Amino acid sequence: MSGTPDAPTPAGTPDESVDEVTDAVLTASRLLVAVSARSLTAVGEDVTLPQFRMLVVLASRGTLRAGDLADHLAVHPSTATRMADRLVAAGLIDRLGNPDNRREVIVTLTATGRQLVEDVTRRRRTEIAAIVGNMDPHLRGSLVAALRAFAAAGGEPGVDSSRDASALGWS
User: Fold this and answer.
1) CA–CA separation, 70 and 132 (whole Å)
2) pTM of the entire structure?
3) pLDDT surpassing 50 at residue 101
């Protein structure tokens, strides 16, 4: 049967297309991770990419209960707590008791944390714009359509950079 590990996949089948697209996305993701790492390093803060992701989630989604934040990050609550400990110590987030439920903790971005997200996002945007500027202009429209479809298929909400530049980070 076509598409099984034991049988070769005929050329031009959807399986081949999925593999080719997967390889292209993996290659592009290496580039985007490198851009993200460089933009984070450039601001001079001692924040890891996973910690920055926490900041972006808070910037794009607002104040969250600690458990909900862990869910958004797809990490165990204890992992989110350790990450939050470091970001609280750095003055980038605050953890407060939930006034509506004393058993819950809510996590919010500080002004310093928001500024960091904005600075890093601005640097990422500049570097990505330079890369896109190096592309064949005729391919850009196809890239936009493909990336929007990819993000939608993965459940990532769209972003309007003219309204919310902080959402262009990593959520």
Assistant:
1) 33
2) 0.75
3) yes
